[in-house]
């Protein structure tokens, strides 16, 4: 089995953890690849090095070591190649991670193909202007349309199946997947949705209204979002908190379910509700 490891070495303690992971995988019989930019850190291991793209393309599965942002980034890249990904938590919450840093013994299951694939719905957002496609983007967590540089409300309109859903003045709107329901959407007052559900969640950000609340759409729907702004406050579309696009006034954002699904590796029998309790609810106690 070829396993490519992608650590976020900017996180505290990740270097030592990643070396331990690599050594365990190699001793278990796996062929391990890393991005060549990390060669100095892993020089004493028996890992192989290549470009990031090559390491991703040749592996049977990818391992992300870091926080949820690292896991999300690597899992999305792996998804476009049809490959599964495992997150090892070396951050704060680690809601998307498959194992913690003190559970490396479970890596033997990965090498022996003793694991479950948890497929996660993704969304595709296409920006159109005057009927022409400007760009397309895929998200695992959420698409966020928000105000620009100034702390002023913007006008957001949402339609579905050609019918009006909402017209609001707000700081913006979050369109999330069930996976993303425990991220920004939850912080904005949105519902927590099991990733087993196929749906699209719309949550307003600070709406200037007592009536605008989250709405859950079936996964076969397509939403069209328009954001109107004043002259000096262009709205922004953010994809998974990692990619930002400035929006012109006459742009439309078409959001629907992506044909691509992210494949997360599960090495433990925990279900979503156990993880929810452990990672979020019990943290308040």
User: Helix- and strand-based class?
Assistant: alpha/beta
CATH superfamily of the largest domain: Probable inorganic polyphosphate/atp-NAD kinase, domain 1
> Residue-averaged pLDDT, rounded?
92
CATH architecture of the largest domain: 3-Layer(aba) Sandwich
- Principal-axes shape call: elongated
Poorly predicted runs: none
- Helix and strand pattern: EHEEHEHEEHEEEEEEHEEEEEEH
Distance between the termini: 42 Å
Return Rg in Å: 20 Å
Number of strands: 18
Question: How would you characterize this protein structure?
Answer:
The chain is elongated and about 60 Å long. The N and C termini lie far apart (42 Å). The chain has helices spanning 14-27, 52-58, 68-79, 107-111, 184-187, 272-281, and strands at 2-7, 31-35, 48-50, 61-66, 85-89, 99-100, 116-129, 132-139, 142-146, 154-160, 163-170, 172-176, 199-205, 215-218, 223-228, 236-239, 243-246, 251-266. The chain is built from 6 helices and 18 strands. It has a 6-stranded parallel β-sheet with strand order 3-2-1-4-5-6, sandwiched between helices. The protein has a 6-stranded antiparallel β-sheet with strand order 8-7-18-15-10-11. The protein has 285 residues and is α/β, with parallel strands linked by helices.
Summarize the SSE layout with pairings.
Blueprint: E1 2-7, H1 14-27, E2 31-35, E3 48-50, H2 52-58, E4 61-66, H3 68-79, E5 85-89, E6 99-100, H4 107-111, E7 116-129, E8 132-139, E9 142-146, E10 154-160, E11 163-170, E12 172-176, H5 184-187, E13 199-205, E14 215-218, E15 223-228, E16 236-239, E17 243-246, E18 251-266, H6 272-281
Parallel strand pairs: 1-2, 1-4, 2-3, 4-5, 5-6
Antiparallel strand pairs: 7-8, 7-18, 9-12, 9-16, 10-11, 10-15, 12-13, 13-14, 15-18, 16-17
């Amino acid at each position: 089995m070829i396993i490519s490891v992608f650590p976020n070495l900017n996180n505290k303690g990740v270097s030592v953890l990643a070396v331990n992971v690599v050594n365990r995988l190699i001793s278990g019989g796996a062929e391990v690849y890393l991005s060549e930019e990390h060669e100095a850190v892993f020089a004493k291991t028996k890992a192989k090095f290549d470009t990031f793209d090559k390491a991703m393309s040749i592996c049977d599965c990818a391992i992300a070591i870091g926080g949820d942002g690292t896991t999300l980034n690597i899992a999305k890249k792996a998804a476009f190649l049809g490959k599964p990904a495992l997150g090892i938590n070396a951050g704060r919450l680690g809601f998307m991670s498959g194992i913690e840093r003190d559970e490396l013994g479970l890596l033997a299951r990965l090498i022996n193909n003793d694991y479950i694939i948890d497929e996660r719905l993704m969304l595709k957002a296409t920006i159109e202007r005057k009927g022409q496609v400007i760009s397309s983007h895929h998200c695992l967590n959420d698409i966020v349309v928000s105000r620009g540089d100034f702390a002023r409300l913007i006008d957001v309109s949402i339609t579905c199946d050609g019918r009006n859903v909402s017209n609001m003045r707000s700081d913006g709107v979050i369109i999330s997947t069930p996976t993303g329901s425990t991220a920004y959407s939850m912080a904005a007052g949105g519902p927590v949705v099991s990733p087993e559900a196929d749906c699209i969640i719309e949550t307003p950000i600070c709406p200037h209204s007592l009536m605008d609340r989250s709405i859950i759409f079936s996964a076969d729907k397509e939403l069209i979002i328009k954001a109107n702004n004043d002259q000096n406050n262009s709205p922004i579309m953010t994809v998974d908190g990692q990619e930002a696009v400035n929006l012109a006034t006459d742009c439309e954002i078409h959001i629907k379910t992506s044909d691509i699904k992210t494949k997360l590796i599960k090495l433990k029998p925990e279900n979503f509700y156990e993880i929810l309790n452990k990672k979020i609810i019990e943290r308040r106690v």
